[in-house]
Design goal:
By secondary structure, the protein is α/β, with parallel strands linked by helices. It has a single domain, classed as Purple Acid Phosphatase, chain A, domain 2 (4-Layer Sandwich). Helix content is 19%, strand content 33%. Strands 8, 9, 10, 11, 12, 13, 14, 15 and 16 form a nine-stranded mixed β-sheet that branches. The chain has a seven-stranded mixed β-sheet with strand order 1-2-3-4-5-6-7. The longest helix has 17 residues. The mean pLDDT is 87.
């Protein structure tokens, strides 16, 4: 695992990992978004030959991150799951039992449609729309969040699976997942590698950290 890079946001120490997550040092919290567990199972059920090892690789990456950072809390900023329960989510429950002392907080995303009983049985704490932990606020889709009273906290979100295009010689270009930081909010890359990306076009005042060959590169 590549050494994470450290940034300061609102006076807090954050470690950006090339494994598509953020470790919040002060709160001992690992922050991820858009894991989409169960997605490959739904594709196979529809007759599309997607290898099951994609899902197992994501779970293995998550285990490595927990072992590396030793967090007290795991905070998922939406779309932990992809759709209805399937056999892959049974595997998640068995994985969950191996980390029963780890607090897992889920701010629900548009794909998190399982029943409350299922979440409770999996020992997950659910937040329907937002979770506030000073000085941050966590929500799945920042465009669906509004505030009426200042001060407005800095927001962490997911949902769009941000990516950045890097142009090479001639007409060549490559697309990479990235962390996207604006003045008001940040968008995490999708943790699952079995997702597409939405190209962001950062303004001069915004910062993008591209994930290139398991290394984080600050582009601006």
């Amino acid at each position: 695992m590549q050494t994470p890079i450290s940034i300061i946001q609102n006076g807090q120490h954050l470690w950006l990992s090339s494994e598509r997550c953020i470790y919040w040092e002060e709160e001992k919290t690992l922050i991820l978004s858009d894991l989409h567990f169960g997605k490959t199972g739904h594709f196979r059920k529809a007759g599309i030959a997607v290898p099951q090892n994609l899902y197992k690789d994501d779970l293995h990456r998550l285990i490595q991150l927990i072992q590396h950072f030793q967090p007290d809390n795991l905070l998922i900023v939406g779309d932990l799951f992809h759709s209805e329960a399937n056999k892959e989510l049974d595997l998640f429950k068995r994985w969950r039992n191996d980390f029963e002392k780890l607090s897992i907080q889920l701010v629900k995303g548009n794909h998190d449609i399982l029943t409350n009983d299922w979440y409770k049985d999996a020992n997950l704490t659910i937040h329907p729309q937002t979770l506030s932990i000073h000085p941050f606020l966590f929500t799945h889709d920042v465009t669906q969040t509004s505030f009426n009273q200042p001060p407005v906290p800095y927001i962490f979100s997911g949902h769009i699976h941000p990516g950045i295009r890097i142009n090479g010689g001639g007409r060549q270009s490559l697309r990479f997942a990235c962390f996207y930081f604006s003045k008001e909010y940040a968008v995490l890359p999708a943790f699952s590698r079995f997702t597409g990306t939405y190209l962001v076009e950062p303004k001069p005042s915004e910062t993008v950290f591209a994930i290139i060959d398991n290394t984080i590169v600050q582009l601006q």
